[in-house]
Amino acid sequence: MYDNKRRIAVIGVGNILMADEGVGIRVLDKLKERGVPEGIDLIDAGTSFFDIAPTLEGYRKIIIIDATRGGKSPGTLYKFRESDINVHNEGAISLHDFGVVESLKLERLIRQISDNIVFIGIEPKNIKPSLELSDTIENVINRVIDLVMAEIIKDSELTV
Fold first, then answer.
1. pLDDT by residue (tens digit) across 103-148?
2. In this structure, is residue 132 part of a structural domain?
């Protein structure tokens, strides 16, 4: 059963110490600055989505933002659902050791985690020690925020 007061979780994943690998967290920071409608929880998962996965029970929708290797040019945005991912054939898309998808599948063995999950991925340019995003990735942050807000608005239970 889903809790009406906790309708949507927006989760930033990444390592801010590794340049563009931290884009999910940087987008989350911008969303916090701008503000989001009531009923939206902004969650910083850092590099350990596995640790926050148990807290996702009860959300109607989950939006996950992360650096994603898709083989296209840096700054390319991807939007997909869990069902679009074939981890066995393509390998994990997340840049983290134990990926987001694997964590979700494991949690579903013992918890009710929504199937209404949208991934927003950003093809990174630089993965190296740095606190700064590359200019390429910095230039797409507003587009990522627009995608997140569009997904929030799509939720029929939410009036913005």
1. 777 767 777 788 899 999 999 999 999 999 999 999 999 999 999 9
2. yes
